[in-house]
Amino acid sequence: MLNIAYKKDTFASPCALVLGCFDGVHRGHGSLIRRAKDSGLPVGLMLLEGKDRDSLFTREERAFVAEKMGVDFCFWVTLDEETAHTPAELFLRRIVEKINVKLFVCGEDFRFGDGANGTPETIKGFGELACLPLLTDRGEKIASSRIKELVARGEVERANELLEVPFFVTGTVRHGRGVGHTYGFPTANIDYPQGKCKLGMGVYAVTVGAHRGIANYGGRPTFREENPVLEVYIDGFEGDLYGKKVRVEFDRKIRDIRKFASKEELKEQLERDIRTVR
């Protein structure tokens, strides 16, 4: 994936540029990307960084989603003090000085520039514009904030209905305590990424590559541990994942976390959980 930095890098070929923040790509964002692709031009996706908290996806994850959506380059704009107070017209002028934009694409509610004074009408002075109406679902605007609320409640199945790709976590597998091995359920321990939106605690059905699995996100009350940890059991997987990066897609929540009287009772419950996701 080609990365273009605001005010620094250039893209000489005529292209379509999709404007927005895109901390996650939902169905409304997907409609913008598909409109840009319909132009037949190379497509760039503007991605805002610098907030570094409460994002649906990390920078690395957003680049992955952009590539999966068929975007040709990511246009990264860092939200710092100077950029936040740049007048809308100057922001656009700096873009067209570096990037050969033939078509701008945005949603009708797109606002930008100092004081959020820039509107789609402002963009018309800098090139051709495709301004799309907002998409709604069940009478509500599809928005990242709404999806984050669903994820925080553990309603990932519903969140996935609004996203272009299922909610996922990318992380490096690290060594844990190895307790899972003692009762037949070795798990991959992954640190939940900093800056990523809150995930509701619970046990989830997940997909890791070609494998199904279950993931526990939260404390481990059976072992008197309260700090939240993401532990993933990958059904049928044999191999060493330590130090390797994995992507865990969350399909649905199976149940809440609870304390078991013994490891044997926990094992019986995990066996039932696995049967539900096979």
Distance between the termini: 34 Å
Number of E strands? 14
**Which fold does the CATH topology of the largest domain refer to?**
Rossmann fold
> How much helix is in the residues?
25-40%
Superfamily (CATH H level) name of the largest domain:
HUPs
Mean pLDDT: 91
Q: Please identify the structural class as seen in this structure.
A: alpha/beta
Could you say what the CATH architecture of the largest domain is?
Answer: 3-Layer(aba) Sandwich
> Roughly how many Å is the radius of gyration?
21 Å
Q: Unreliable stretches, pLDDT < 50, 5 or more residues?
A: none
Distinct helical segment count: 8
Q: How are helices and strands ordered from N to C?
A: EEHEHEHHEHEEEHHEEEEEEH
- The general outline is elongated
CATH level 1 name of the largest domain: Alpha Beta
Please indicate the percent range of residues in DSSP E strands (runs of 2 or more). Answer: 25-35%
- With strands numbered from the N-terminus, the spatial order across the biggest sheet is 1-4-3-2-5-6
Question: Can you put this structure into words, describing what you see?
Answer:
The protein starts with a strand and ends with a helix. The protein has helices at residues 27-38, 59-68, 81-84, 88-98, 120-123, 144-152, 156-162, 263-277, and strands at residues 2-5, 11-18, 43-49, 73-78, 99-107, 128-132, 136-137, 140-141, 168-174, 188-190, 202-208, 211-220, 225-234, 245-255. The strands form 3 sheets. Strands 1-4-3-2-5-6 form a 6-stranded parallel beta sheet. It has 278 residues and is of the alpha/beta class. The protein is built from 8 helices and 14 strands. Helix 6 (144-152) packs antiparallel against helix 7. The mean pLDDT is 91. Helices cover 26% and strands 33% of the residues. The chain has 2 domains: 2-141, HUPs (Rossmann fold, 3-Layer(aba) Sandwich); 166-277, Elongation Factor Tu (Ef-tu), domain 3 (Beta Barrel), CATH 2.40.30.30. The longest helix has 15 residues, at 263-277. Helix 1 (27-38) links the parallel strand 2 (11-18) and strand 3 (43-49).
